What we know:
13 helices; single chain; Rossmann fold
Amino acid sequence: MTHMVIIGGGTGTYTVLRGLKNCPVDLTAVVSMMDSGGSNRVLRDEFGLLPTSDIRQCIIALANEEQNELLRNLFTYRFSQGVGISGMTFGNLFMAALTDMYGSQKRGIEETCKLLGIKGTIAPVTYDSVHLIARYENGKEILGEHFIDEPMNSNGSLVELSTVPRAELSDEARGAIESADVLIFGPGDLFTSTIANLVVKGVPEAIQKSKAKIFYIVNLMTKHGQTDGFTARDHVETIARYIGRKPDICFIQEPFTLSEDIKNRYLEENAHVVKNDLKNQTEYTIVESDFLSNAVFEKQKGDTLVRSLIRHDSDKLANAIISAWMTVSSAKS
């Protein structure tokens, strides 16, 4: 069975996993562990644990939808009242409780995956407690994923991302990457969700050792403080620099128009539609189609973080990924 490894975090990885779990493939999610905002700040500062929000989203995406519907809904429930608990999700608290019971966060994650009957495997990219640090073109450095993700001031282009202290690649993630047939990156915040995994020591080396084809899903919108003014080519070239090679196939949304309401709300966040300037290149294959979800996503009550209003459609992406892999496989044979 084809082994597909999705490397990332956040709603982008959730979207890809949710579509692919219905396909006849072996799935592994290699997930970022550097989040420091919202409920993850409480987990890190008050519980002394690694952040689990990205893990939680992957678990929900891969959960068995024919059973435990109430439990899946509970894992997405976010408290909106209570000193210290407002903004926290039930799923994060649940995994914190299991960690306390078993004395191991790794075991807590594994038991949660069993309980929800996930299809596939979830591999934290590292078990080291580290923070992201970003360096900008003006020379300023910002510590912490949350402050990089939602900057208070404009610092120009983000030119380098790293971790402090140095993070070591987990054995599970290393094995998944090296054995993969396909490595899938994106969509999601380019630096804090995707590249956050690539700055972990050992990840670029594992990718170079892998014989996998690399698929990259280009974001729909730019992200203020990370990809201001980025075109599709900028996204691809940036991730290629951290991976150490260009993607084999890039998936990009065909031209679309935002409603005035959604456009104005994105303008308030200094976010714009990513311009497609990949058509005249020959270094990799471009798959351009309608990948846009018809839904508009609103934040839950109690959620204080900035969230995407428009997203890719899980099934559309999954169909395109499987079709592209079948074409690649046929060519190889």
